[in-house]
Specification:
Layout (H helix, E strand, L loop, with lengths): L1 H11 L5 H31 L3 H9 L5 E2 H8 L3 H13 L3 E6 L2 E6 L3 H32 L1
Antiparallel strand pairs: 1-3, 2-3
């Protein structure tokens, strides 16, 4: 964020050379576009994780590389459903896949994802009691 503020201050500096001012504006607009692309990338990652089955797959892969069949059996899901979820995770580059003989093995692309999920778990647990109380209030209102 500091670099962004310095760039913004530089952009506001008057320049005696119009080319320099144009260069500053171009640089600033490229940085803004890059930040927007990063936001879209992050949103895509969260969208990929926004399904309980995909979260369960990632949590299973915490243990290490697993064949597709083991993932399907442990989660109790059908092959077509599992393939669709694994495809989404692959498309967002959250998991790696490799063939070994007639099996496809999956692993997490980066263990940093587990740290993100652990933080989300802590966040959820911290607010679970508050959310439960709100849900009870809403149910009580509906009953009356």
């Amino acid at each position: 964020m500091l670099h962004f503020n310095v760039l913004l201050a530089t952009l506001e500096w008057p320049s005696k050379r119009p080319q320099m001012q144009q260069l500053r504006i171009l640089l600033f607009s490229n940085i803004v576009l890059s930040m927007e692309r990063v936001r879209h990338l992050k949103a895509g990652i969260f969208q990929a994780l926004a399904h309980p089955t995909r979260l369960a797959i990632v949590e299973l892969l915490r243990e290490g590389e697993l064949p597709v069949n083991a993932i399907l059996v442990r989660l109790g899901i059908e092959q077509a459903n599992g393939s669709q979820h694994l495809s989404t995770l692959r498309a967002r580059r959250l998991v790696n896949s490799r063939k070994s003989g007639n099996q496809v093995l999956y692993s997490l692309r980066d263990p940093l994802l587990l740290e993100v999920l652990d933080l989300m778990h802590r966040y959820s647990m911290a607010h679970l009691e508050e959310d439960s109380a709100l849900l009870q209030e809403l149910k009580a209102e509906d009953a009356s």
